[in-house]
Specification:
11 helices, binds zinc ion, globular, 27% helix, 18-stranded mixed β-sheet
């Protein structure tokens, strides 16, 4: 055999060998998919008697308005509908020439409620999610972080990208985006993702991301620390940071896509992680954005990685002699406070007090704990019955109950 033929053969063999791990990863995704499907059969009949209504939604969504994205309103509405979402928090980048918050989706469209917000970057480089947004957002880049927070007398202000945020001692923000899909995706090795996509994208597009999903440990630690330091409530949310701009396509002169693949369409992004809001609208109807902004500010919500199984039905409540409260609320410690957790699917419940795990039960459908000390108590839920690394990542992250 001629040397060049030998070399070619060797090269082919090497390429073939290099693909074995990816073929195996595809097989493992198949097993994960089967395990998630079988989780559904373990779903417990609803025994919730709290009369709260649970609303599913996503936060931190961009459209074509603020640049970086080509996503249309139609695509966003259709994706929210197909995911059966109740609400979407839009966070448009500001533009100097027009008010992106005023122009973006707002109010009810196709049965989904939209809240129009902005994502701004302050002069210090800190980024904030502001709901609702306003016409001054385009000037926020010239103001200090405290000036931006102070110029807004009402609404919801959240710290975005906490790993890059500097001015933690400022006042006026009500919460932290402890998880961001885009920040997580940036840590993925592109070469690994490329070959994984070739092998698995067609069959398991959602789960492909799930295998890379990591507990946002640094941000959670920062959140716990800031609650202790500020001695005030701080809500945690997850941001989908949906742009629908990752992928390749060839378009004709009118902009119509001829061939292409979009790796992060809204429909997929909205399936990964969601914010579940608990509450009762005053007149039984959601007629303005006040209900969602109030409920989220109050911490009446939890983060659910619904890609691993629908988290609807999760509850975390506290009771003492005469009152019952839910996550986000304060309760006074007279003698003792009874904390209760209820899961829609049995799993592992980790109860944390001031950021440290104080109870960790596996294979349970709920948990009761008598708190005799003051502190902020929160819950993380895991599904260790799922194979692979996702079994070690949180499925649910609750907001705290503050025992005062
Ligand atoms: Zn963003």
């Amino acid at each position: 055999m001629k040397p060049w033929k030998k070399l070619l053969l060797l090269l082919l063999l090497l390429i073939l060998l290099s693909q074995i791990p990816f073929a195996y990863r595809r097989y493992k995704l198949g097993r994960l998919h089967a395990a998630i499907v079988s989780l559904e059969s373990q779903r417990q009949p609803s025994a919730i008697d709290d009369r709260l209504i649970e609303y599913r939604g996503v936060a931190h969504v961009h459209s074509f308005l603020g640049g970086h994205s080509a996503g249309t309103f139609q695509e966003i509405i259709a994706a929210a509908q197909s995911n059966q979402l109740d609400f979407v928090l839009m966070s448009e980048h500001p533009a100097r020439e027009f008010n992106t918050a005023e122009m973006t989706l707002k109010g009810s469209h196709g049965g989904v409620f939209f809240i129009n917000g902005n994502e701004v970057k302050t002069a210090a480089g800190d980024r904030l999610l502001l709901f609702p947004g306003d016409s001054l957002a385009s000037l926020d880049s010239q103001l200090s972080t405290q000036e931006v927070l102070s110029r807004r007398p009402s609404g919801l202000a959240l710290v975005a990208y906490p790993e890059e945020f500097k001015n933690w001692d400022t006042t006026g923000y009500q919460g932290i985006e402890v998880y961001n899909v885009y920040s997580n995706a940036r840590r993925i090795n592109p070469l690994l993702m490329f070959f994984d996509s070739i092998w698995s994208y067609r069959s398991y597009p959602d789960l492909l991301f799930a295998t890379f999903y990591e507990r946002p440990s640094e941000s959670l630690k920062r959140w716990d620390e800031m609650i202790a330091k500020k001695k005030e409530k701080l809500v945690a949310i997850a941001g989908n940071d949906s742009h629908a701009n990752v992928g390749i396509s060839v378009n004709d002169s009118s902009g119509k896509t001829l061939v292409g693949v979009k790796l992060d369409p809204y429909q997929r992004s909205f399936r990964l992680v969601r914010l579940h809001v608990l509450g009762i609208p005053l007149d039984g109807q959601i007629s303005d954005d006040g209900f969602f902004l109030r409920s989220i500010s109050a911490g009446h919500c939890f983060i659910g990685y619904d890609v691993l199984g629908d988290t609807s039905g999760f509850r975390f409540a506290a009771k003492d002699g005469n009152e019952t409260v839910i996550m986000g609320d304060e309760i006074t410690l007279d003698d003792q406070v009874r904390l209760t957790v209820r899961l829609p699917i049995p799993g592992r419940i980790m109860l944390l007090k001031d950021g440290a795990a104080i109870k960790d039960d596996s294979g349970v459908g709920g948990l009761e704990f008598v708190a005799k000390e003051k502190g902020s108590y929160r819950v993380e839920v895991y599904l260790p019955q799922l194979p692979g690394p996702v079994g070690q990542q949180p499925w649910i992250i609750s907001n705290p109950i503050y025992v005062k």
